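We include this case.
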Amino acid sequence: MAEASEFKTVSGLGALHHVGLAANDRVAVVSLYRDLLGYELSHVDDVPSQQLEALVFGKGAELIEVLIPRSEDSAVGRFLAKRGPGMHHLCYAVADLEAAISELVESGVHLTGTQPVQGLFGPVVFIHPKAAHGVMIELLQLD
């Protein structure tokens, strides 16, 4: 991994779009974020390709995406088995995802893949947690 002083800011990097969390207990998640903290459950999406259900909570400009696995063998299921519930990723908007990928690859930043995949909000790519001090970073090009 490159030293921090070697990194250059990804061009077109925008603000934090959402915080992604992983959890097992849908009822407890809804109770916490909607009932206790006052977020609106604004979107629920079944994502068969990832074997998960995604709950999106919003309050003003804040978004929290909670990933609930449908299978212990899914990526999120394995994440939960290894790390337990909690923060899964941070997501930032980028103006040009293809340009961001090229810059990151050129800089030697470890990505989980170099081709965009479809996320809930548009095409995404992930910076591997090993390249980001244990935190997966999602880069999103908004549709």
Observations:
- The chain has a mean pLDDT of 93.
- The chain has three helices and eight strands.
- The CA atoms of residues 116 and 134 lie 21 Å apart.
- Helices lie at 26-36, 75-83, 97-107.
